[in-house]
Protein 1
Amino acid sequence: MAEISGEQIVGLTKAFYSDPKNLLAQNAATSHDPLDFCIHHGATGQNLHVYTHKVAEVKPMSNQRSSGRCWMFACLNAMRVPFMRKLNIEEFEFSQNHLFFWDKIERSNYFLTSMVEIFKKGEPVEGRLVSFMLTNPVNDGGQWDMLVNLVNKYGVMPKKCFPEAHSSGASRRLNITLTTKLRDYAKALRDMVEKKASDADIEAKIKEQLSEVFRVTSICLGIPPTTFTWEYYDKTKTYQTVGPITPKDFYLEHVKPVFNMDDKVCIVNDPRPKKYEEMYTVEYLGNMVGGQKTLYNNQPIDVLKSTTLKSIQNGEPVWFGCDVGKFSTRKTGMLDIKSVDYELVFGIQSLQLDKAERLLYGESLMTHAMVFTGVGTDGAETETKTTKWRVENSWGEDVGEKGYLVMADDWFSEFVYEVVVDKSYVPAEVLAVLTKEPVVLPPWDPMGSLAHAGSSKL
């Protein structure tokens, strides 16, 4: 293989400076964010925040801050819409810190238990599986079925009854501390497996390790109350109160009747050399021992769009996962392939790979979860052709239009990978796929990336 020669470098430099456009782009991009100069301002006026159907807006706009809790925020943001409608209240948030706390505890136990299973199989520490598991054992990210596990076991509660902590909105230090200890624990468990320790002794060791995890997490996040009393005013300024009540009973009595986690169906679009109308799961992708698996019902992209459209037409928001960093602009809040022109600035063509190829070559994966709250259609009587989508984000009001983004329909096709809709909007033939035995994908498969990546702010 030929090395880069000095003559080649001279030729590259000469060719670069021979084009005045390169100089202009260099002068601009060395002093500012290059993305600013790739934004096609002629396209920014094409996607206005006006929609054929829109879910009622609720306040306040949520903000996950410096954490990867997008999947939790998106779920609780979707959940609060029918809940607030039911109680006739103007502003409300569920406690994200409550689910965050229990996810750290449960995920640590899931990791330790999984490592014991892996070590019993004889997997080497330097092998790909163990290395992958140790890379990020207690990340902030997650998938929909992990939310089902948490809500069904621990319920939900108002944010005012268990508010944010510093480490819930800035989780890096907590995660570093827990990761260090979990790796220590994994080594100790491997030693026990190699010494043929009994299952009872290993279980006792994990309980001892979890006591430290609980202590560290409690110090950083606080401990969620076992019961709470919530006082509030409805829209008529009438005083109301709920409780004392447990978070689980609060979910069962006040939330589940209008937002049942068990009635939601997770549909993905994975066009790699895999079959549609099949079920998939990712090995060791979970957060709760004894909880349900993370399952994907793989369908063509039109199924994701049509079920999301039906949900929004009925006033129900939709949780979804996407690759938020592609062809997106933070200031304008646009997710639009046509709005970013890399060729004009850099002289390179984009989107040379199709959706399946981007997944295969590591060019795209799920990085962020948000909520669909509106949709534009072509205006025909059938209203089956979608043109754009309204998105509620969890990055505060400074992004897009007071926190809302607008997504072009072709961006949906290319970079949305997953939606969660109520089963009432899902065709019978799609629901029938749920009865199939899932194909198991390896732990590092990109369809599990949302649980590992969390969220990437633009």
Protein 2
Amino acid sequence: MHAKHGRAYKVEPRAIAQVLVSSGCKEGKIGDLIQDIARIVGVDLDCAMSRRTVRRAVLEGLVASQVQLEVELNSDSTSHRKTEYQSHHIHMRVPTKNPDGSVRLSEDPRARFAGIKSAVNHSTATSKDAWLTVYEDITVALCMGET
């Protein structure tokens, strides 16, 4: 089986490398580990990932997760009588109860309203500060609920 498509590794070996690194495996050992796992399940891979390629796969996963987070956290702004307002929403999988009483995460993300804040302007810095305030408010609310 070919682990690469052209000169680039396919999605599956990169995903396996990301999982192995997040599980604590050393980057330098992952190429051989993927080879061994493939051999155990009866697949013969034509090449092994280098430590450098594993690092790139992990970095790629980080960038993808940051893009996904940007999609899941969104805000919209408007003004009313010369006052700027930002509305914040978070899209996430939420806990739902099964008929037997067990809890699982929803299959599809749900939109959750995170509040409206007044803003000085529509700048990126103002938007960042508003998100940090929303995060702080959520964190404080969670901490208060634990006591």
Protein 3
Amino acid sequence: MGEAGALVNLFQEALRYLNDPFNWTRDGGILDLLGEHLRISASAVLVAMLLALPVGMLLGHTGRGGGFTVALSNVSRAIPTLALLTIFAVTPIGFGPTATTIALAVFAVPPILTNTYVGFRSVDRDVVEASRAMGMNGRQVVLRAELPLAAPLVMTGVRTAAVQVVATATLAALVAGGGLGRIITLAFAQQDYGAVLAGAVLVALLAVLTEAVLATLAWAMTPGPRRLWPVARGRTASDPRLSAFARPR
């Protein structure tokens, strides 16, 4: 009963912390830290997308570099984010949001790169050949034929990377980077375990929300009726060789 009572008290303390408006609205409170957390996470994922998407699209389109993609992804996954932050501390990058963003971007590249490459390689070659037969150049084949069909896997990589980054961004607090991790680190230092639990719950909820939003976006971008992706229009809808464009893959 003692352990059960302590657990109940812990949850009650966490709820009190979350229900206190002052903890949300004060300077450096939950809302401020949430904004920092989102900025760090979004910046890291955006940088990773700018680096990984073009490379994955190029390699997937040409069919080259599969071994390079796998090797790079494996090596990147093997590098702990905290180790990178420690290395940055002794370089001109130093501590702070910049170091955290770079480290998280490195962490986000592998799933985006791998899924983009696999997505483009999984596009039916008959569809690619049909698009070329219709007179599309290489750029048009990539953007109008391969990318719509590869979009579900590409978005899966982005979603995986984003959720991982949101969860891992709590490490930013260890290097003066801000974010919701500050609630956890400060509460640990003060032995306020109710606040520690509250911070962990906030990070978990943010990760779940990120997953839900990006999953919805991935669904909307999947080719098909009443979706956002502009496929099955004009010649594409009437040409039997390109009818696969209108079907989810």
